[in-house]
Amino acid sequence: MKRAKQWFTIIGPGIAVAATGVGAGDMVAAAVSGAKFGTLVLWAAIFGAVLKFVLNEGIARWQLATGKTLLEGWSHYFGRWVSIYFLIYLLLWSFIVAGALIAACGLAAHAIFPEFSVSVWGIIHSLLAVLLILIGRYALFETLMKFFIGMMFLVMVSCALWIQPGWMDMFHHLLIPTIP
């Protein structure tokens, strides 16, 4: 038991980072694609995961080799306008994504507990997020992330086993790309 706890302590930060790579948009896109095309585009999910890994690996290597972030490198090589453009993009993106996440949390909670409106549930989730930030403990965040990632994994595997996909078709579509 002690060894398992040490192992989870070591991989905990990696799990938290990996969770940011599989976002809500990925889950929704995968679910919609799966409902519409079945396992026909399963290869695309694998390709996307590999592409994310390659890009993140390259960015990490750049930062370790140069001691600069990717944005610092872009600003140095392409000029200051890159930083200004990125700042504008980041501000817009942050507000749009924040609004979408508030609405998504509110909608999901309302679907399960319709006693409150989507807006009220969105506000409740926002306040809980602010509380988590104010508490400011990384260990709490990491523990919550591990729990939710574990739950997400179990739910996804359970759903896959429950719907009983054609395993041969699934492996075929994993190995041979097909565009519907």
State the main characteristics:
180 residues; 0% strand; globular
Please describe the topology of this protein.
Elements: H1 2-21, H2 24-37, H3 42-66, H4 70-78, H5 81-112, H6 118-135, H7 138-163, H8 167-175
Helix pairs in contact: 1-7, 3-8, 4-5, 5-6
What can be said about this structure in brief?
With 180 residues, the chain is mainly α. It is 85% helix and 0% strand. It has helices spanning 2-21, 24-37, 42-66, 70-78, 81-112, 118-135, 138-163, 167-175.
What does this structure look like?
The protein has 180 residues and is mostly helical. The chain has one domain (25-175). Helices cover 85% and strands 0% of the residues. It is built from 8 helices and no strands. Helix 5 (81-112) crosses helix 6 (118-135). The model has no long low-confidence stretch (mean pLDDT 83).
- Shape descriptor: globular
Question: Gap between N and C termini, in Å?
Answer: 48 Å
Roughly what fraction of the amino acids lie in strands? Answer: under 5%
User: C-alpha Rg, in Å?
Assistant: 20 Å
The SS-based structural class is mainly alpha
Total helices: the number is 8
Mean pLDDT score, rounded?
Answer: 83
> How many domains?
1
Extract low-pLDDT stretches: none
Number of strands: 0
Could you estimate the helical fraction of the residues in percent? over 70%
Largest sheet: none
Q: What string, H for helix and E for strand, traces the elements in order? A: HHHHHHHH
